[in-house]
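Q: Convert this sequence to structure tokens.
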Amino acid sequence: MKISKNKLVFLAAAFGILCIGAILVAFIQDDSSSVDPLIAEKAAGYQVATVQVKEDGFEPKQIELQAGVPAKINFKKSTRFTCIKSMISKDLGIIDAPLATGNNIVALPELKPGTYRYHCGMYMFDGVITVK
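A:
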């Protein structure tokens, strides 16, 4: 069976388009689960918060916590298309917490009242934790 040159080019182009589509789906799909991983932590006495890690920064940019209660914050990264690869906070003593796609739980001890700042590894995006 002989395949014409035009059919071969068409098949190669179709295969290429399918490959590119599969790669895009792999990068765009949301790897995070719909179940909140902090439900059990709240029952165990932690205060919990979720910060969305998006293409254009952290959302919300400011969260409030209660003083004297340990906390767990989920830095939930729903996309790979962001330059935010880690969270750094000298105020909290966090040198470099890597942020993978999905749930990224950061445990914090009992904090004193005050303002604690954090930022991405490139200092482009930041957020604030206010403890009252």
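The radius of gyration is 21 Å.
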